[in-house]
Design brief:
Length: 182
């Protein structure tokens, strides 16, 4: 049986939210759980394998980001169970249900790793922002707040990642004679 069949499973609960609403939110949270687990393993992949002169600072940064995602995995899973749902968060379900592509294995230096992670943090950030609106529309301010907290952190991490790439772009642009004249 596919683990997807369990994604909207609901246990009886005294929580004052309609089962239909809880079912929709549990489905959304389980998609977030799969994606967050997947992203955490991809950030660890980067933590272990990044090379180059920026190795150590990126190695530490990626570990900090992975630890943060691990906390969110637990927060999201426990919101599922608080709503009476079944948290679906094994490695197999994460691989099957994540919205992200697999991490590239043929990259080497820091810039390539930072780019690969930015390319995955951006769709994850978009997923979280959509989830804030959906859970708000469903009247679940608590889950919307949980998504808002994660979203704010992920936007900040996307900034951290892109700051490495934007610096190179700015240097190149300002080095042209036209830019200097301005
Ligand atoms: Fe480590």
């Amino acid at each position: 049986m596919s683990p997807n069949n369990h994604k909207q499973h609901l246990y009886p609960t005294r929580i004052d939210m309609p089962a239909e609403t809880r079912s929709q939110i549990v489905g959304l949270l389980n998609a977030t759980l799969a994606t967050t687990l997947d992203l955490k393993t991809q950030v660890k992949q980067a933590h272990w394998n990044v090379k180059g002169m920026d190795f150590y600072q990126l190695h530490l940064l990626f570990d900090e980001m992975a630890t943060e995602l691990e906390d969110y995995v637990d927060t999201v899973a426990e919101r599922v169970t608080a709503l009476g749902g079944l948290a679906v968060g094994t490695a197999r379900t994460a691989a099957a249900d994540s919205i992200l592509p697999e991490f590239p294995f043929d990259i080497l230096d820091g810039k390539e790793y930072v780019t690969a992670l930015a390319d995955r943090y951006a769709p994850y950030a978009k997923h979280l922002r959509v989830a804030i609106d959906k859970t708000g529309e469903l009247g679940d301010a608590d889950t919307a707040d949980l998504y808002t907290e994660i979203s704010r952190t992920i936007d900040k991490r996307l900034w951290f990642l892109e700051a490495h790439l934007q610096a190179a772009a700015t240097t190149t642009a300002s080095a042209t004679p036209e830019k200097v004249a301005l």
